Predict the structure.
Amino acid sequence: MTEIRPERCQAPAFPPPSIVDYRPRSTLVTPQHPVPKAKFPAIDFHGHPQGLLSSAEQLASLVAALDALNVRVMVSADNMSGDRLVRTLDVIRNSPHKDRVRILAGVNLSNVGPGWAEKAVSQLETDLKAGAVGIGEISKGFGLRTRKADGSRLKLDDPDLDPFWEACARLKIPVFIHTADPAEFFEPIDAHNERWLELALFADRRYPADEFPRFEELMAERDRLFARHPRTTFVAAHMGWHANDLARLGKMLDAMPNVYTEVGAVLYDIGRQPRLAHDFFVKYQDRLLFGKDSFQPEEYPYYWRVFETKDEYFDYYRNYHAFWKLYGIDLPDPVLKKLYFENALRLTSGLPQSGWPR
Ligand SMILES: [Zn+2]
């Protein structure tokens, strides 16, 4: 309840605007430094270019958009395998833009049971031979929805998957994995939920307890999976959904040197804690990869601005999704380079390795 002080502050005298309509104009005047292009060439490790890789013309339009943002390489994380992967690689190789896109291979996690791992490893070897550079994105369906051959929920740490993760270590490729969704999506949708409006707008973001495993259950399964395969390199998408608790994420990175993390779609958490986030990015500068997730070119500059400037109190690009403003975290150049390209290059030998600023 809003405070009521007798004689001074009362219940609203006018009908309050709805949560959907209330968009106050900020009167704050501060220096503004929009950043249309990244300061250093970037690798988008979490790309979903989708249709834009299907023909030479589409690819040319993707590359033009990437040029305007200073994204030098997009890593497609569209879970491609077999014929579709080969066809897409052909489009890229027969174009003038060979080194602008790389592709992660998909893995089919349906019907895991006896014989699954041998088949999956053999398909992975085929896909890597064709030109894939890693695995991903393993989607949030793994853990939330995917069923085993016997009908039970496929847990992230299911031992039937072990030979596959070990093969990824032997083949020296990163595994890019998205687990669960923001913790608030699993919580009651009430006036205390900071994602209330988003949850009211998007039915597919709600994970009621009677239908889905709980957030912490999924995190525990994920952490056991990462810990059981210390030779396998995992990149946890979306900062593992711990960008709102950087101490927890730091503990995870300290405990598991094989784990890296990617910053896509959690800018609203990075930019609301500029001092802590700055220190975290400096401390864990070797463990963070840039990625954007959904391909909307006009949204990348918000990332550059948060990472590169000291700007204060500016808007995020989704106004149903964060009821707060963002601040720049002002990263030093050596950290920006690691975040934008150096870490991705180190983890992924199949990325174009030359021609980067050093
Ligand atoms: Zn994704």
Observations:
- The mean pLDDT is 96.
- Residues 116-130 form the longest helix (15 residues).
- Residues 53 and 335 are 31 Å apart (CA to CA).
